[in-house]
Amino acid sequence: MINQPLKYAITLVAASFFATPAMANDTDAGATLFKKNCSMCHAVDKKKTGPALKDMSQDPARLTDVITNGSKPPMKAFGKKFSAEEIDTLVAYIRSEQK
Ligand code: HEC
After folding, report:
1. Closest C-alpha to ligand 1, atom 15
2. For ligand 1, is residue 80 a contact (CB within 6 Å)?
3. What is the rounded distance in angstroms from the CA atom of residue 51 to the CA atom of residue 43?
4. How many Å apart are CA 43 and CA 45, to the nearest integer?
């Protein structure tokens, strides 16, 4: 019989092998996507080309909408580039930096 912590560790290792962004820890996946695609215009706590994460809306529905459909240029729509699950991880990451 495998003990619980070991079973948990094995599950984690297995999960990280097969992880898609939605299966992995959402905040970590979102942070990775954010660094590659958004950090040139958005920082956590200071304004760059776009608003700081801390100054963004705290409403997940609003964040999802802007990321999916875009806003005023140069904030473009990312709904074609990312899946809905990937956008969820970006929203999770932004929200995690707002607390
Ligand atoms: C080329 C620069 C640029 C890039 C790249 C960019 N943004 Fe933006 N973003 C902006 C600007 C500028 C605004 C403000 C637009 C406005 O005034 O409506 C904005 C606005 C937003 C808002 C709305 C905030 C609010 O409170 O209404 C969100 C959310 C956001 N961006 C998320 C992202 C995410 C997530 C990414 C990466 C996938 C990203 N942005 C990539 C420039 C950028």
Report:
1. 72
2. no
3. 8
4. 6
Name the band, by pLDDT with cuts 50, 70 and 90, for residue 10. Answer: confident
Give CA–CA dist 7/80, Å, rounded: 38
pLDDT tens figures, 40-87: 999 999 999 999 999 999 999 999 999 999 999 999 999 999 999 999
Nearest partner of 25 among 59, 33, 79, judged by Cα: 33
- In the block, tokens 């709904």 appear at 79
Closest atom of ligand 1 to CA, residue 34: 37
**75 Cβ inside 6 Å of ligand 1:** yes
